[in-house]
Amino acid sequence: MITRKKTRYPVSQILRQYLYHYDRQRDIPQIYSELGRFSGAIPYDDPRGRETLWHTVMYPPDVLAELRHRLTAIYSELKVGRDAQQHKHLLVDRIDFGEFGNSRPFRIRITNLFNDNSDYFYVKHADASRIYGLELEHIL
User: Fold this and answer.
1) Widest CA span of the chain, in angstroms?
2) Do the domain assignments include residue 12?
3) What is the dihedral of CA 86, 84, 73, 19, to 10 degrees?
4) Element (H, E) at 103
């Protein structure tokens, strides 16, 4: 049982200015609330059959169609950079939800249809402490 949760710090205007100044801020659409509109979930077991803390979530067809386009666009932006319009070869393979911690992340599995390689990215609530950690990692 979780007795204490990490404090969530809002992203200040000074931090936003820093990110903008060093070209580290991107206008990625907020999608967390839309990902929460899933209609069902099943426990995700790892390839060895062991239970994990993740749940694979399911969406109604119309919601999934909208999410797929937005998620592949976000992935392209994260991996390729600005003006990444070509992402028709990317497929949203699976969306998992983790109901742990205070971030309650979504894990998105993207598969490249050209080479059948898969990659993940995570969607979480914005938090200044996460951004500071990523910036420190980037600087080092």
Assistant:
1) 47
2) no
3) 170
4) none
- Residue 99 pLDDT class (50, 70, 90 cuts): confident
Can you give the pLDDT at residue 60? Answer: 95
Residues with Cβ < 8 Å from 98, sequence gap 6 or more?
53, 54, 55, 104, 105, 106, 107
Please indicate, yes or no, if residue 23 is contained in any of the structural domains: no
Q: Look at residue 115 and tell me if it is in a domain.
A: yes
Into how many domains does the chain fold?
A: 1
Q: Which residue has the higher pLDDT, 104 or 86?
A: 104
Q: To which residue do tokens 């976000």 refer?
A: 74
Query: Shortest CA distance to 32 belongs to which of 81, 85, 97?
Result: 97
**Does pTM surpass 0.70?**
yes
Structural domain containing residue 39:
29-139
